[in-house]
Automatic annotation (TrEMBL):
Lineage: Bacteria, Pseudomonadati, Pseudomonadota, Gammaproteobacteria, Enterobacterales
PANTHER family, alphabetized: PTS PERMEASE-RELATED-RELATED (PTHR33799), PTS SYSTEM MANNOSE-SPECIFIC EIIAB COMPONENT-RELATED (PTHR33799:SF1)
Domain PTS EIIB type-4: 139-302
The keyword RNA-binding belongs to this UniProt entry's keyword annotation: no
Active site, per annotation: 154
N6-acetyllysine modification, residue list: 213
Protein name (record): PTS system mannose-specific EIIAB component
Subunit structure as annotated in this protein's UniProt entry: Homodimer.
Primary location group: membrane
Residues annotated with Phosphohistidine modification: 154
Ranges for region Disordered: 109-136
Keywords: Cell membrane, Cytoplasm, Kinase, Membrane, Phosphoprotein, Phosphotransferase system, Sugar transport, Transferase, Transport
Compartments, record wording: Cell membrane; Cytoplasm
Listed PROSITE patterns: PTS_EIIA_TYPE_4, PTS_EIIB_TYPE_4
Length: 302
């Protein structure tokens, strides 16, 4: 080890099938073993990933609690060493950010000179203006991906699915999350560049679907469970395929593969969606082979 054993430092693991709620429980358990009187600094991998999202929910209303994303060896080493000089909490955060940034470099590549600043043109609107022709009730948004993933917006969604579907909006559809102001705020902040994130309840999603203002917008819908998908489908939202990317294991659920666990309510919703000829396919990322959700359900229902 570069620095030897360190005091008052904790770590957690993150394994397939877990989500932000699981990570929060792990964080809280680890924090009970540490002295947090001077603050807590989380060093996590990626901005918007599940470790970041879970840590953000813990730090949002606490003084001297912070999350720094993009952890690398220089950041970790310099931050741990700096503690010997008794810096203030804000100074320690600044050290982590600065050393992490400076620690990323290439041996042969030379830094490019930045061109002179040019006056910025007015920013484009969040969504392209629609044609002036009258819109009909049949003009709806283009749902490029409907995904069940109880981690919601995290690394795989932000980096892979968003680029491959070329969406301009991510809409989280959940009554529970829409009524949680902390989670709602954090989710709208972790969308990748060029994409806007929204959090709405199920009924509001139906109203948005029927609003011609959003006609032809390319969107991704994210759900935490299949029941919410069924609710909007029953109210007329046209979904032809649902990707199941992650449903964490918890008491009362049965694991059908390393990323998806279901209970009887989930199974009932999946069966009703399947009866409507909606494709139900399981993949974490687009490059994975498609698994049929109903085949997995059949194995646990047998």
């Amino acid at each position: 080890m570069l620095l030897g054993e360190q005091e008052n430092v904790g770590w957690i693991d993150f394994v397939p099938g877990e989500n932000a709620d699981t990570l929060i429980e792990k964080y809280q358990a680890r924090l009970t073993e540490l002295d947090t009187s001077q603050g807590v600094l989380f060093l996590v991998d990626t901005w918007g990933g599940s470790p970041f999202n879970a840590a953000s929910r813990l730090v949002v209303d606490k003084t001297h609690y912070e999350v720094v994303a993009g952890v690398n060896i220089p950041m970790l080493v310099e931050t741990l060493m700096a503690r010997d000089d008794n810096p203030s909490f804000d100074e320690l955060v600044a050290i982590a950010v600065e050393t992490g940034r400076e620690g990323v470099r290439a041996l042969k590549a030379q830094p490019e000179e930045k061109p002179a600043a040019v006056a910025a043109s007015p920013s484009a609107p969040a969504s392209a203006p629609h044609a002036s022709r009258p819109l009909t009730p049949d003009d709806h948004m283009n749902i490029c991906l409907a995904r069940i993933d109880d981690r919601l917006i995290h690394g795989q969604v932000a980096t892979r699915w968003t680029k491959e579907t070329n969406v301009s909006r991510i809409i989280v559809v959940s009554d529970e999350v829409a009524n949680d102001n902390v989670r709602k705020t954090l989710l709208t902040q972790v969308a990748p560049p060029g994409v806007t994130a929204h959090v709405v309840g199920v009924d509001k999603m139906v109203r948005v679907w029927n609003n011609p203002k959003y006609a032809r917008d390319r969107v991704m819908l994210l759900f935490t469970n299949p029941t919410d998908v069924l609710r909007i489908v029953e109210q007329g939202v046209d979904i032809k395929s649902v990707n199941i990317g992650g449903m964490a294991f918890r008491q009362g659920k049965t694991q059908v593969n390393n990323a998806v666990s279901v209970d009887e309510k989930d199974i009932a919703a999946f069966r009703q969606l399947n009866a409507r000829n909606i494709e139900l396919e399981v993949r974490k990322v687009s490059g994975d082979p498609k698994l049929k959700m109903m085949d997995l359900v059949a194995k646990v229902s047998a």
